[in-house]
Each structure stands twice: as structure tokens, then as C-alpha cells.
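Page 42, continued from yesterday. The earlier attempt failed because a stray header line got pasted into the input along with the sequence. Redoing it now with the clean sequence only.
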Amino acid sequence: MPEVCSNLCEPQFALLAVGHVPRITFVEDDLGVDLSEVISVVNTAEVFVVMFQIFERRLLVDTRTGGGETPLIRVVDRVRSSEERFRELQRLRPRLSAPERIVAFQWQRSVRTFVETGVWKAIEDRVRNAGASESTCLAVLSELQWEERHEELKAVRGEEPYRTLKGTGLS
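This time it went through. C-alpha cells are written below.
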């Protein structure tokens, strides 16, 4: 049976300057993830899913190619089980066999932090080197940013599942 793996929490911290852009290489406890492990997954896993804590949708990356298929990078809906994710992947990529496993990890911070830490660049480099287009990558990043902004606006407005404190006497 294929498996979904998700154990990436052994945080440490170091900040290194790369050119003029500061780059975080290990993430402190407050970010809740070992960045070197995340980058390792991005660079080695055939298929992985990034679960953003701020919004429900997921980033699905399938680096496999063949049979005329280029890598898949897409924002997808949350599923109820790993079996459902495998079925979805087969539906999206019927010319490819099922992967042995799908690695999943939680990203507990913003999309901006996802970009600033170099995780997005590592993903983009990997899929572009395997044949994905720049426009596809830009569209996916834009969609992630929109999902996050949409969720933030729902929270500010007190829309479901959030509640506003306005008028409750707690402000």
C-alpha cells in the first residue's frame, strides 16, 4: 500500500546572507519545521503535498515525467484520506502509474515566508528543470497568495468559520 509521510519537525535556527538577500536555512521553534528537511523533500520526493495552516487548499507537486507528461504543480482541494489523494493523482495523470508514496508536510507560516525561506524557489527550480513552464509556476504562486489573502479577509470580516469581536464588549 502506498504511504503518506509527514514528520518534519526538528527545528533549529541559523540566518545566512546569500548575496544581499537574507536566507533562513533552519527554522526556529516558532516556525515549527526543519527547513533543511523540507528542502530535502522538495529536492528528492517524486510527489509531495504542502499543507498550509492558514488555508484549506494544498499545493500538489508531482515531479514525474514520461508519456508526454510534464511535472504537475497545482493548488488542489483538501482530501479526507491518503487513498483519496492517490485516486485524485491517478485521475489527473492517467498516463503515469501510481507513485510509491506521497510525502506531505505542514507549512505553518505564510506564503510570503514560504517564498522568503527559499522553499518556493526550490520547488520552482525542480519542476522547471523537469519541464514545467514559468507561467504555470507564476500562476500557482499567485493562486497560493490569493488563497491566503482570501482567508485573511474572511477572518477580518468575521465570515465563517471566523467570528468578529465587534459589538461583543470584548474589544
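Notes: The longest helix spans residues 134-157.
Reminder to self: strip header lines before submitting.
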